[in-house]
């Protein structure tokens, strides 16, 4: 029985029109951003100082090798009009650990549920201040507490803050379709899914570096897109 | 026992406690911890006065919760002040207000569990007001306008408390593109300063100093009064601009001084603003409007300082540097220069919370002292024969009579 499953899956896949596509690329940053500031308040705080992981630094610009820019949301902005997509069932998590948010930048689809977790052994409040969606502010008093949340409308850069520890900031981007990615320190863009061949507008959004758009064409299920931001001092 | 002579120390205590409250509120805004306690009038579901100490002494909760408790203490002082200044005639209206608040609180309790905190809080305020009404003694009302000013403070303290609470509860509600949290925060900040000035005026008018003020009814100096009014108008405008900047919680819109992004007047086209935001290492993103707002505040600061120094010199020359007005004007000028310095330091320290809060306190002090100078100048320059004014301000009738040749 076990051996039959992959065989059956292969047969079914071969029978269906294949539309799985992949958009690859890279986001880079030219220029030298201001150096990341050490958040001294983390160590200075009576509670946070006990659980701090290393030296907390500002994550406004996180740049990897060869200028690879992290924390950039890359997504299909135009080209899918009229199509609807179910929200992914995967449930991302935004964790509060050592008095910092992880990840610093996240992305979810409209209606997609995500968890907000407190891994610290003391209280944080979670104050989300969107401009389009409905905001919320609640306390997470105990370690391990998880609250499930979602947003109803597309919106970039929804700010999450803990006012108990006001240096704690994160951003959640709410996307209209499931074709998006948040870059890590490799700057790599890899958007996979059922994207029909055709022309699309791709946008890259970085909280500080700004926004860039590019027109691309997916041909034979493949396309490439590179973004290069520049920081001018 | 005649306790009237203790009215002034009590009014002074209330005014100083209010200045402390303004500072505490300023600290909460400067640190950005106003939403650390997400509910109101409860704190994390607890009765505000019963929050466990370990939750109180925790990061930004300490500042916000202390602000709430301090505000409640000021509320109590103001209720007592109203009763004391109002004398026996204040007892009945206080009892009625207290009873109405208790009834309203009980009705809220019946609305449902989500109103439990609010109902209990309102009923307890009503209880305090009723207790104040039941205080025996304190029969004779303070003279002149003081009872009315105390009633004004009584009204304002409750409005101010409500605004502070609504700033938390309605933080996310939008009016156009602005949240009610921002709007209520702005009004709460400005009203707080006004409230402090009112209590400072009550303290001034009930002071022995005011009663002993040298009598010069009919002195020339109307133009100085107009100059003082202009200067204090500029100070008030500065306070509104400052509160508008602070309550947007956007960080410093311009990070350098005396230049602004390297120019005397910064560029505010979209490309320039995007460039400014690119190199900001804090989490804030500023807008052209916020940059222009800070530039207005800078220009306003220069205008206010020039106006204060100019009118102070004129006041000193007119009334004499050794006169109460001359001395007051000198102190006012000193505070204005100190306030200007604090404004610069606020930028140079990237809005360090203690410096920014001292700047708020400086603004409140300027507003109060300016008001005190105007009242004093009006008293001294009032025509000796005027009876209308003298009936409004305590001690003025005595001044007018003694000042009449």
Tell me briefly what this model is.
The complex is a heterodimer of chains A (233) and B (405). Chain A is mostly beta strands.
Give a written overview of the molecule.
The complex is a heterodimer of chains A (233) and B (405). Chain A contains three helices and 16 strands. The N terminus of chain A is likely disordered. Chain B is mainly α and 405 residues long. Chain B has 15 helices and two strands. In chain B, a hairpin with a 2-residue loop joins strand 1 and strand 2. The longest helix of chain B has 32 residues. Chain B is flat. Chains A and B meet through strand 7 and strand 8 of A and helix 3 and helix 10 of B.
Instruction: Give me the strand/helix succession of chain B.
Output: HHHHHHEEHHHHHHHHH
Q: Give the number of helices of chain A.
A: 3
- Through-space gap between termini of chain A: 63 Å
Computed CA radius of gyration of chain A, to the nearest angstrom:
20 Å
Order of helices and strands of chain A: HEHHEEEEEEEEEEEEEEE
Give helix % range of chain A. Answer: under 10%
Fraction of residues in helix of chain B: 55-70%
Euclidean distance between termini CA atoms of chain B? 37 Å
Report the major sheet of chain B: 2 strands, antiparallel
Number of helices of chain B: 15
Shape of chain B: flat
Helix-strand makeup class of chain B: mainly alpha
Query: What's the arrangement of strands in the largest beta sheet of chain A?
Result: 5-11-10-7-8
């Amino acid at each position: 029985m076990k051996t039959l499953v992959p065989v059956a899956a292969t047969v079914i896949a071969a029978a269906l029109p294949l539309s799985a596509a992949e958009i690859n690329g890279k986001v880079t940053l030219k220029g030298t951003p201001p150096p990341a500031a050490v958040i001294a308040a983390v160590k200075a705080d009576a509670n946070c100082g006990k659980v701090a992981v290393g030296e907390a630094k500002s994550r406004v610009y996180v740049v990897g090798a060869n200028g690879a820019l992290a924390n950039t949301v890359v997504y299909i902005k135009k080209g899918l009009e009229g199509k609807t997509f179910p929200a992914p069932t995967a449930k991302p998590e935004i964790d509060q650990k050592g008095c910092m948010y992880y990840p610093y930048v996240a992305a979810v689809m409209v209606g997609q549920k995500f968890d907000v977790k407190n891994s610290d052994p003391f209280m944080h409040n979670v104050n989300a201040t969107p401009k389009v969606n409905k905001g919320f502010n609640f306390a997470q008093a105990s370690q391990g507490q998880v609250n499930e949340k979602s947003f109803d409308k597309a919106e970039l850069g929804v700010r999450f803050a803990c006012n108990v520890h006001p240096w704690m900031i994160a951003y959640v981007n709410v996307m209209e379709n499931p074709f998006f990615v948040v870059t890590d320190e490799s700057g790599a863009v890899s958007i996979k899914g059922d994207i029909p061949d055709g022309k699309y507008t791709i946008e890259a959004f970085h909280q500080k570096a700004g926004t860039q758009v590019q027109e691309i064409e997916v041909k034979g299920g493949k396309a490439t897109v590179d973004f290069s931001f520049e920081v001018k001092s | 026992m005649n306790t009237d002579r203790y009215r002034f120390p009590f009014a002074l205590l209330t005014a100083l406690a209010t200045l402390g409250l303004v500072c505490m509120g300023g600290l909460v805004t400067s640190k950005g911890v106003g939403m650390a306690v997400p509910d109101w009038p409860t704190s994390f579901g607890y009765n505000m006065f019963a929050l466990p100490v370990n939750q109180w002494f925790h990061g930004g909760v300490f500042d916000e919760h202390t602000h709430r408790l301090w505000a409640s203490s000021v509320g109590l002082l103001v209720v007592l002040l109203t009763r004391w200044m109002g004398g026996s005639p204040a007892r009945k209206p206080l009892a009625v207000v207290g009873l109405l608040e208790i009834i309203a609180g009980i009705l809220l309790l019946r609305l449902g569990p989500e109103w439990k905190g609010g109902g209990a809080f309102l009923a307890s305020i009503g209880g305090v007001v009723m207790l104040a009404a039941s205080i025996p003694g304190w029969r004779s009302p303070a003279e002149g306008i003081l009872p009315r000013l105390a009633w004004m403070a009584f009204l304002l303290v409750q409005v101010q408390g409500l605004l502070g609470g609504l700033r938390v509860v309605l933080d996310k509600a939008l009016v156009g593109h602005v949240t009610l949290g921002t709007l209520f925060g702005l009004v709460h900040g400005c009203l707080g300063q006004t409230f402090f000035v009112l209590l400072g005026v009550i303290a001034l008018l009930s002071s022995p100093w005011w009663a002993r003020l040298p009598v010069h009814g009919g002195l020339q100096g109307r133009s100085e009064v107009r100059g003082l009014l202009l200067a204090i108008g500029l100070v008030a405008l500065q306070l509104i601009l400052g509160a508008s900047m602070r309550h947007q919680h956007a960080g410093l819109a311009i990070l350098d001084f005396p230049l602004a992004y390297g120019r005397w007047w910064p560029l505010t086209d979209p490309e320039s603003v995007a460039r400014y935001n690119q190199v900001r290492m804090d989490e804030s993103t500023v807008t052209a409007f916020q940059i222009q707002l800070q530039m207005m505040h800078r220009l306003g600061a220069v205008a206010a300082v020039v106006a204060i120094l100019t009118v102070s010199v004129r006041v000193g020359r007119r009334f004499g540097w050794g006169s109460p007005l001359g001395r007051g004007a000198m102190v006012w000028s000193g505070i204005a220069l100190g306030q200007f310095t604090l404004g610069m330091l606020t930028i140079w320290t990237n809005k360090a919370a203690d410096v920014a809060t001292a700047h708020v306190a400086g603004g409140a002090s300027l507003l109060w002292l300016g008001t005190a100078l105007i009242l004093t100048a009006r008293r001294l320059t009032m025509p000796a024969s005027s009876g209308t004014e003298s009936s409004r301000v305590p001690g003025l009738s005595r001044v007018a009579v003694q000042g009449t040749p």
